[in-house]
Write a structure and sequence with these properties.
The chain contains 20 helices and 28 strands. It has about 725 residues and is an alpha/beta fold. It starts with a helix and ends with a strand. It binds beta-D-glucopyranose. The site of beta-D-glucopyranose has 7 residues, from loops.
Length: about 725
């Protein structure tokens, strides 16, 4: 029997092998990737190569139909899978199978400081993309938070290059396990939305390499992202989407990127530059054809008929075309033609739970005087919930990250559900902000119209507050233009819609005031001293209400820390102090490497809330911090060991942050820079000793004369900290 079975197996293998030999190499999933690419390329005409390097619809590019090579389908990104639009229009395609789970905005993910949360995020959103048969997920975004006015900061991972780099890698890896490519955006220097098509950042190479590029580099080299999206802005006199320096020299040259550079939608402007300067796949161009509808607009794309014309006229060869086609084929084999990929899943219980737990972990407790939080339900309190953001759907709007969700739990509904009959929850509007709620035909099914005056709204809120035990204001920004929204910047740091007046008025009548700030950006808080409890609540997606309620009532102990600084005033931020933000032409990044906390510390400006700050319902003690060695030789690494004890009475998680300072150096260096972190969970009373490794690179700066990373010999400081402004131990290290 056994021999018979073995013979049968042999026969099956033989047949399979014979079949395989008849299969062209490019169709053989077991053949090496590069052989498949070369084989496919060798069978393609010039026209077919040109066809696969530009779009055929709003979100897809063609394959090679003659050869059975499938199309590529893209989707936004980065917080959920965008609903389908029409072939040639931004309006909805009218599908009923394209509702998704909205995950917390990337600022909230960054605030978890938890690499595993990022992996869970990537896994979950990747599965949804795969189920929806998308091949390229347009995200995540890792542009550095340079100013709190940037309307798209909520789609990014904060102000620190190390934190953003660490957090982007697991996201990329896990998405791609689904046979779905990430398209990391917007490469590079897309740090403002105002004039995003014409602005041109001017900065030195230290700022470029030390601040603005590391997260992209990590996404490409460590995460292995299969694609990257060019930015709208200029750099070095050329659009970022076809930019010799950024794409040819740095991305493909220095970093060895073998993936596809995809243009941002409408980010291509010139055929010859696009040919020469590293763009591989053109999307979203606005051509006359599209506007007039007189011909297939896609034939008029810069990398379509105009490319063919240049080849026909002998003005360009086909070497660049082959390189672009090769990259696109590689992407197709990795994604749409990947026979090994799983099937994915959509709106599963696991995805909803992922959205909720990541949201809970990202919420930051900024202030908690007199242990105002968590809300004590044992006395069956009356809770006044106030503010438009308690009821407003936040998953619709904000630009291309807008979603059509299977469900979204508002803060008010979430709180009501979580407290059940253990409290009475009442609501007053408090202010009227943005009553619209529509994006590309997706309509938030709620009517927020309210014609009452500011005074009436505040009066009603005060009445309610006076008769309540707790007052929770859900305020902040929203997804309308000039708030947290693509294609426009905020007008200022202050809260809109007279919210400051409302909060001040409430602070006068209650000492149990809790302010929950819903935003992806820092806001000014002129009333900070009068409000005992302040929470940064972000945009948390489908499960927002549950995540927030669980933290407010203490079902979950908050453990997020800020991924960017909250300045007191706009002028406290480097870009604004130097008057260089928001322009339509050249914008000089005069603050150089001093972005965020690096600026605040160099200028000795106290922030409202510091980078890395975040409280807990328990307390953590740090003890016995030590280095594995007092000195370090070039290329070596050192370990920082520290014991952390939960000295309070509830379990919780702490984020230990390691900063490095180089007090004496031939070039200016920030007072300290984040170079390591670890989040750890501790039961009440529990202690754990952790070890964080600092490789040689942690001590280097970018020498822009020699064009290399370098560390100088001498004394370094290692700071073991709970926040950038809360250093618990300082250790000395000598570099030899
Ligand atoms: C945005 C991108 C987005 C693309 C497609 C552009 O306007 O800048 O982030 O992925 O549109 O929707």
């Amino acid at each position: 029997m056994k021999t018979k079975l073995t013979l049968l197996a042999l026969l099956v293998t033989l047949v399979a092998c014979c079949e395989q030999t008849n299969v062209p190499t490019y169709l053989n999933p077991n053949a090496p990737l590069e052989e498949r690419v070369e084989d496919a390329l060798s069978r393609m005409t010039i026209q077919e190569k040109i066809d696969i390097i530009h779009a055929q619809s709003k979100f897809s590019s063609p394959g090679v139909a003659r050869l059975g090579i499938p199309e590529l389908w893209c989707t936004d990104g980065p917080h959920g899978i965008r609903p389908d639009v029409l072939w040639d229009e931004w309006e909805q395609a009218g599908c009923t199978n394209d509702s998704c789970v909205a995950y917390p905005a990337l600022t909230a993910l960054a605030a978890t400081w938890n690499r595993e949360a990022s992996a869970l995020y990537g896994k979950s959103i990747g599965e949804e993309a795969r189920y929806r048969e998308k091949d390229v997920l347009l995200g995540p975004g890792v542009n550095i938070y340079r100013s709190p006015l940037n309307g798209r900061n909520f789609e990014y991972m904060g102000e620190d290059p190390y934190l953003a780099a660490q957090m982007v890698v697991p996201y990329v890896k896990e998405v791609q396990k689904n046979g779905v490519a990430t398209c990391v955006k917007h490469y590079a220097l897309n740090n403002q939305e105002a004039h995003r098509h014409t602005t041109e950042p001017v900065l030195d190479d230290r700022a470029l390499y030390e601040i603005y590029l590391p997260a992209f580099k990590a996404a490409v080299q460590e995460g292995g992202s299969w694609s990257i999206m060019g930015a709208y802005n200029y750099f070095d006199g050329e659009h970022a989407c076809h930019n010799n320096r950024l794409l040819n020299e740095i991305l493909k040259g220095e970093w060895g990127f073998d993936g596809v550079v995809i243009s941002d939608w409408g980010g291509t402007h010139n055929t010859e530059e696009a040919i020469r300067n590293g763009l591989d796949l053109e999307f979203g161009s606005w051509t006359d054809g599209l506007a007039n509808g007189s011909s297939n607009a896609y034939d008029n794309y810069y990398l379509a008929a105009p490319y063919q014309r240049l080849i026909d006229e002998g003005k360009v060869g086909t070497e660049e075309l082959d390189d672009k086609a090769r990259r696109v084929l590689r992407l197709i084999f990795r994604t749409s033609m990947n026979t090994q990929k799983p099937f994915g899943s959509l709106v599963s219980e696991a995805h909803i739970e992922a959205a909720r737990t990541i949201g809970e972990e990202g919420i930051v407790l900024l202030k908690n005087d007199a242990n105002t939080l968590p809300i004590d339900l044992s006395t069956k309190p009356r809770i006044a919930v106030i503010g438009e953001n308690a009821i407003k759907m936040m998953t619709v709007g904000g630009g291309s990250s807008s979603l059509k969700v299977a469900r979204e739990v508002s803060p008010l509904d979430g709180l009501r559900e979580v407290v059940g009959d253990r409290a009475e929850v009442c609501y007053a509007r408090g202010y009227v902000g943005d009553v619209t709620g529509e994006y590309n035909g997706v309509v938030a099914a709620q009517n927020l119209a309210d014609n009452r005056s500011e005074q009436e709204l505040i009066r009603e809120a005060i009445q309610l507050a006076k008769t309540s035990d707790y007052v929770v204001v859900f305020g902040g920004l929203n997804k309308a233009s000039h708030q947290d929204c693509e294609d426009s910047d905020r007008f200022g740091l202050g809260l809109p819609y007279a919210q400051d007046k409302l909060i001040e008025a409430l602070a006068d009548v209650t000492d149990k005031l809790i302010y929950v700030n819903i935003s992806g950006n820092a806001v000014a808080m002129p009333w900070v001293e009068k409000v005992p409890a302040i929470v940064q609540g972000w945009f948390l997606g489908s499960e927002a209400g549950h995540s927030l309620a669980n933290v407010l009532v203490g079902n979950v102990n908050p453990s997020g820390k800020l991924p960017f600084t909250f300045p007191v005033r706009l002028e406290d931020c480097g870009a604004h102090a130097l008057g260089e933000y928001g322009g339509s032409g050249k914008v000089h990044y005069k603050e150089g490497i001093l972005v965020g906390y690096r600026w605040h510390e160099a200028m000795d400006i106290a922030p409202l809330f510091a980078f890395g700050h975040g409280l807990s319902y328990t307390t953590f003690d740090y003890s016995d911090a030590r280095l594995s060695s007092k000195s370090l030789r070039e290329g070596g690494k050192v370990k920082v060991d520290v014991t952390v004890t939960n000295s309070g009475s509830v379990a919780g998680s702490e984020i230990v942050q390691i900063y490095v300072g180089d007090p004496e150096c031939s070039v200016m260096r920030p007072e300290k820079e984040l170079k390591g972190f670890q989040k750890l969970y501790l039961n009440a009373g529990e202690s754990k000793r952790i070890s964080i490794e600092l490789p040689w690179e942690s001590f280097c700066f970018f020498d822009d004369v020699a064009h290399e990373w370098r560390a100088e010999k001498g004394d370094f400081k290692i700071y073991v900290a709970a926040a950038s402004d809360d250093v618990r131990a300082t250790l000395d290290l000598k570099l030899k």
